[in-house]
Amino acid sequence: MSTQSAGLHHITSIASDPRENVRFYTRELGLRFVKKTVNFDDPGSYHLYFGDETGRPGSIMTFFPWPGVKAGRHGTGQAEEVGYAVPKASIGWWAERLGARGIAFEGPTRRFEESVLLLKDPDGHFVEIVGTDWAGAVAGWAGGEVPAEHAVRGFSGVTLWLSEAAATARVLTEALGFAEVGSDNGRRRFAAGAGDLGTVVDLREVGGYPAGKLGAGIVHHIAFRASDDAAQAEMAEQARRLVSQVTPQVDRNYFRSVYFREPGGVLFEIATDDPGFAVDEPVAHLGEALKLPPQYEPHRAKIEAALPELGQP
To answer: In terms of pTM, does the model score above 0.85?
Structure first.
């Protein structure tokens, strides 16, 4: 195929307490609070976005925080470990920071010649801090809780847990333009052909695990980058040869999306790079105001009254 994804666009997960979600990702991981909006299918709940200074594709972690939602179950058919890239020389600094802040972690361990710290967020998501050779060449955000030289640059990648990986590998290589680049201790690594953030997807066959279950602490879906509508349409057409159904395009205000469930059970999205998160507020003020899609603006007062306070990022 001629069109290639540049890697991950965003990853969306389920959280429980929205205040604790904001606190952890802004204060502990040092990400920027990029966008405060609502779930377009459920305007009574938030959709929260965290990323780098401008909210570049490849840096965006988003959450549906549903107070009182039951914990999910880690298992097959899910995206599990979410890796955040930092400069390789910063791994020791991060280990000291996590220890000083009372955050339990494992590692560092070696994987594909990278150093990895594994921890969990307050809902039990698997979070990895990954020391990479390339992250030092990407500027870190200077306005957050973490000094710019040690700051998270964006995603290093994501790991999928699967009962069987072959059909998922076909989707990555034949529909999304990834290439298999190696294996390490049971992981098969696939890399996108372009881009600097979030270019890696690892596949792990973990057939001994039960099937995963959505809930707090579980990834809802992962999104891959398309440069524009034409690139998205081509990738979607390639995906239709391999999966049972691809949705029509849906406008999400900050990107346009199509969705499909890959053969291993993970919900995949293909999202356009444009228009981006500065379409409705300037970069200097990202995340400050509640942004609503046009269909919900007439109900702003009612929606704002129902949403819980988030605290100060």
So the answer is: yes
